[in-house]
Design goal:
four-stranded mixed β-sheet, 4 strands, 1 helix, 51% strand, alpha+beta, single chain
Length: 59
């Protein structure tokens, strides 16, 4: 069964704040942290959040 994970991004000039919400019944929501606003820094959290069978939805 495919799982959906919603990722919220609050983008600023230097930093991006990341929050995650699960689509499962538990519906966990959590603050994931802040990352630098550059392509190399963005790929690391997306690799950690995206697991096999998980659809990432960026909001």
């Amino acid at each position: 069964m495919e799982h959906t994970r919603f990722v919220g991004l609050d983008i600023h000039q230097e930093r991006i704040t990341v929050a995650v919400a699960e689509s499962r019944r538990s519906g966990m929501e959590e603050y994931f942290g802040e990352i630098a606003n550059d392509p190399g820094a963005i790929s690391k959290p997306s690799d950690r959040l995206g697991r096999p069978g998980t659809l990432l939805v960026l909001l």
